[in-house]
Design a protein that fits this description.
This protein is elongated. With 217 residues, the protein is mostly helical. It is built from eleven helices and no strands.
Length: 217
C-alpha cells in the first residue's frame, strides 16, 4: 500500500480552493476519520465515506488522490487540530515553570483523550504496512510539537531565563518526561486521568526538569 504526499492541496490543479471546496474537503475528512476509527482503514470504502459526507468518487480523487491519500490528509488534519490550538504567544511573559506547565498541560490534555488514543492506534496499525504514514505522522505531530517547544527554549535562553546545552534534545526529552506513562495507560488499559491528576503529574515533571535547566545566580 503506497501513501504518496498528496495532501497539500484540496484541488489537484494550481488554483486556490474555494470556500465551498474547503467546506466539502472538511466534511470528507471528518466523515473519513469517523469511519476509520469505527471500522478501521481496510474496512472503510470510499463509497461509505461518500454516503456519510456526500460528494462523489471524482471529488475525492481530485482532492486526495486515493483512499491512502485521504488517510494521509486525515492524519495531517488531526495533528493540526491539536497543535493549532496551542497558545504560545505569552510564554516568554511567564516564569519558566508556569510556561512549561501551560504548554505541557495544553498539549497532553488534548493528546490523551479516548478519541485521540483511537486515532493513535489507527496510525500505529496502518504504519505497520505503510511506514511512510508513520513518518508523516511524526513530522506533522511529535516533531512539530518538539519544534514549538524548542523555539520557546531558544527564546528563553536568549532572555536569560533558562540554560540548556541542547534545546532540541531537551524539547524531545521534556515532552516524553511530562507525558510519562499516562499515554501508555490510556493506550493499553483505557485508563484516563482527570484534570487535577494530570496537572499534578505535569507540575512534578516540570519541577524535576527545571532543576537542571534553570539559571542559577
Amino acid at each position: 500500500m503506497s501513501f504518496t504526499d498528496n495532501t497539500a492541496a484540496v484541488v489537484s490543479d494550481n488554483t486556490a480552493p474555494t470556500k465551498r471546496g474547503e467546506s466539502r474537503a472538511q466534511a470528507v475528512l471528518e466523515a473519513a476519520l469517523e469511519l476509520f476509527l469505527e471500522l478501521g482503514f481496510a474496512n472503510t470504502s470510499l463509497d461509505k465515506v461518500i454516503e456519510k459526507a456526500g460528494g462523489s468518487r471524482r471529488t475525492i480523487y481530485q482532492m486526495f488522490g486515493s483512499k491512502e491519500g485521504l488517510l494521509q490528509a486525515v492524519v495531517k488534519e488531526s495533528c493540526d487540530s491539536i497543535l493549532g490550538q496551542l497558545e504560545t504567544d505569552k510564554l516568554l511573559d511567564m516564569p519558566p515553570r508556569d510556561a512549561l506547565i501551560s504548554l505541557a498541560e495544553q498539549f497532553i490534555s488534548r493528546l490523551i483523550t479516548p478519541r485521540r488514543i483511537a486515532f493513535y492506534r489507527l496510525v500505529v496499525a496502518e504504519s505497520t504496512h505503510a511506514p511512510e504514514l508513520g513518518r508523516q505522522f511524526m513530522a506533522a505531530g511529535p516533531e512539530r510539537a518538539q519544534a514549538i517547544l524548542c523555539n520557546y527554549f531558544r527564546a528563553a535562553m536568549a532572555a536569560g531565563q533558562l540554560q540548556l546545552d541542547n534545546p532540541e534534545i531537551s524539547a524531545r526529552q521534556f515532552f516524553e518526561f511530562a507525558r510519562g506513562d499516562l499515554h501508555f495507560h490510556a493506550m493499553f488499559d483505557n485508563h484516563y486521568v482527570d484534570g487535577a491528576t494530570l496537572r499534578k503529574h505535569i507540575e512534578i515533571a516540570v519541577d524535576v526538569f527545571l532543576r537542571g535547566a534553570e539559571v542559577r545566580s
